[in-house]
Write a structure and sequence with these properties.
Length: 167
């Protein structure tokens, strides 16, 4: 053996996908489990749907012109790159809201997230300097809502975990 890392063959990858589809690998907490399977379009739809739902909690309208999305390759803990197309997504968009209402909006959004099983890790309702970070939901999304300077907007951001595209 030469110490080289062996790349999985096409047959190995197809076998893995078949195994996942048949439920052969159903552990939900193993660190070596493959990432969930999702298309980039589905990941983007999930991120945007969450933002729309949260903005709706306070009757906010999203400014589509401010939407930004960035797909990136996923890397392992030691910067390993499996080369199988796995990706994550950062999606952000803003909504107009006077700064003095940011805290009240975050309060309503927090209640919604907690009701859906998200765990809030950071929270501040300061007028014009509001911030909330939370993680959870069906897709284990990380969501952040914060005052955007100048304090006339709220910035909604969603980061996805690593997803494996369907073959």
């Amino acid at each position: 053996m030469t110490g080289r890392i062996r790349r999985p063959t096409r047959i190995t990858a197809l076998t893995l996908v078949a195994l996942l589809a048949s439920g052969g690998c159903t552990s939900d907490s193993g660190k070596d489990d493959p990432p969930p399977v999702k298309t980039k379009a589905d990941a983007e739809h999930s991120a945007r749907a969450l933002i729309d739902q949260l903005a709706g909690q306070y009757g906010l309208r999203i400014d589509d012109k401010t939407a930004r999305k960035e797909f990136r390759d996923c890397f392992g803990k030691n910067h390993e790159h499996p080369g199988d197309g796995r990706f994550d997504l950062t999606y952000s968009v803003r909504s107009r809201l006077p700064g003095e209402q940011h805290g009240k909006a975050l309060h309503a959004i927090r209640k919604k997230l907690e009701a859906e099983g998200y765990k809030v890790s950071s929270y501040r309702e300061d007028p014009s300097d509001a911030l909330m970070d939370a993680k959870g939901g069906r897709d284990n999304l990380f969501v952040s809502v914060e005052s955007y300077m100048p304090a006339t907007d709220l910035l909604f951001s969603v980061n996805t975990p690593c997803f494996l595209p369907p073959t």
